[in-house]
Every structure is written in structure tokens, then in C-alpha cells.
Amino acid sequence: GQQLNQSPQSMFIQEGEDVSMNCTSSSIFNTWLWYKQDPGEGPVLLIALYKAGELTSNGRLTAQFGITRKDSFLNISASIPSDVGIYFCAGFNTGTASKLTFGTGTRLQVTL
Amino acid sequence: EAGVTQSPTHLIKTRGQQATLRCSPISGHTSVYWYQQALGLGLQFLLWYDEGEERNRGNFPPRFSGRQFPNYSSELNVNALELEDSALYLCASTLEQGRAEAFFGQGTRLTVV
């Protein structure tokens, strides 16, 4: 099945650093979402974006809906150890095929 | 309010057997999605149920099937298990058809030996 391309694939950062990751698609989506998954658990919804160009924050997380509707970005400021995990983007279009299409994931590891 | 619950947490089956996985959505949610996540990989869409009907299925063989019950809970059945079916199976629910915000359960880890 289709998967969205996320980069970077993995990253090691020091506690306190800012993190940026992005997600690109060959097709347009009208909703973008970002999830975080801890090992052995289900993904947890972090942020949802509904409009091209929209910038939304949730605490230290900020996400943007690309103006082309084919990409999205997630930033984490002042990272802490509990930010460790895999971050997935997901695109969604309403209609008869309504389903989330997920990205390949970005694995984040934080060193003290 | 309880989240999405899945059972069992872990399941070990022998190649060729059948597996049944269960999911209870968040109370009030009518749509249920199933995803497969092989080890270290992303989430692949399996099935979508809404109001008791199968609405869409991913690129998986027919031995992957399921249903949604009148109380909106759902069951995923995998027949003739193969070693490659070993994965984390995730269920998610949304408030209604057309809503993007999906909430996931903790998953069922299926191991085929």
C-alpha cells in the first residue's frame, strides 16, 4: 500500500535541542495528522491539521500543513527524554476511501 | 472514558491456523479501522468498518476478513496463517465516517510459528 515519505528516518539528539521532521506525499490530502508511538503501544494522536498553510501548536510541538497540501512538518522544541519514540505523519481524505495513509516514521532518540 | 481496547494482547499461533482478534471502540464511535504493523515498519491499512458494513479494504488477501457488530465492536479474522502474518495488529476508532481523528488501541501482537 501507499506510504508517505518521512525524513529523517531516525535521529539522535541531545536533551534540550529542537527537532524538525517532515512528511511528503505524491498526492494531495485535506487533513494531516501527527502521531507518536512508544514501543509495543498503539500510536497516540498529537496534532491534527485541517487547512493548507495552517500552523498548530500543542505544548512544545508545532506542526504545519504545507501549502501544496502534499507535505507537513513537525517541530519539537527543547526535547526531553520522554520525547523518545517513533513519530508518524498521516494523511486523510474524506470520501468512500476514507482512511489514514501513514508515513514511514521518524525514530527519535534523545541523549542526556 | 475508556479508550479503544483490544484483545488479546498477545497471540501465538501455528502456521495454517486461524486467528481472531477483537476490538472495542471508544464509546460513541461508529467507525473502526484495522492496521497491520510488521516489526520495525509503518502501518498498513487493512479494513474499515462503519455502521456494521465493510467500507474499504487494503491490499491484503481475502484470508484477512472481519466484521463489525451492532454495538460497533469489531473482529479481525486471519485464516490459513503464514509466518509473514506475524505483526502488531492495531485497531482504531473514529467518531463517525469522514472524521480523520483516529484513536488507537494498544494492539494485538500476533506471532505465527
Protein model, in words:
The complex is a heterodimer of chains A (112) and B (113). With 112 residues, chain A is mainly β. In chain A, 0% of the residues lie in helices and 53% in strands. Chain A has strands at 5-7, 10-14, 19-24, 31-37, 44-49, 55-58, 61-65, 71-76, 85-92, 100-102, 106-111. In chain A, strands 2, 4, 5, 9, 10 and 11 form a six-stranded mixed sheet that branches. In chain A, strands 1-3-8-7-6 form a five-stranded antiparallel sheet, with no helix packed on it. In chain A, strand 6 and strand 7 (61-65) form a beta hairpin. Chain B has 113 residues and is mainly beta. Chain B has no helices and eleven strands. Chain B has strands at residues 5-7, 10-13, 19-24, 31-37, 44-50, 53-57, 64-68, 74-78, 87-94, 103-104, 108-112. Chain B is globular. At the A-B interface, strand 4, strand 5 and strand 10 of A face strand 5, strand 9 and strand 10 of B.
Q: How many runs of DSSP E, i.e. beta strands of chain B?
A: 11
Number of helices of chain B: 0
Order of helices and strands of chain B: EEEEEEEEEEE
Structural class of chain A: mainly beta
**CA-based shape of chain A:** globular
What amount of the residues of chain A lies in strands? over 45%
User: What is the succession of H and E elements of chain A?
Assistant: EEEEEEEEEEE
Largest interface by residue count? A-B, 26 and 26 residues
Q: How helix-rich are the residues of chain B, as a percent range? A: under 10%
Distance between the termini of chain A: 38 Å
Radius of gyration of chain B, taken over Cα atoms and rounded to an integer in Å: 13 Å
Structural class of chain B: mainly beta
Number of helices of chain A: 0
Keywords:
heterodimer, A: 112 residues, mainly beta, 6-stranded mixed sheet, 5-stranded antiparallel sheet, 53% strand, B: 113 residues, 7-stranded mixed sheet, 0% helix, 50% strand
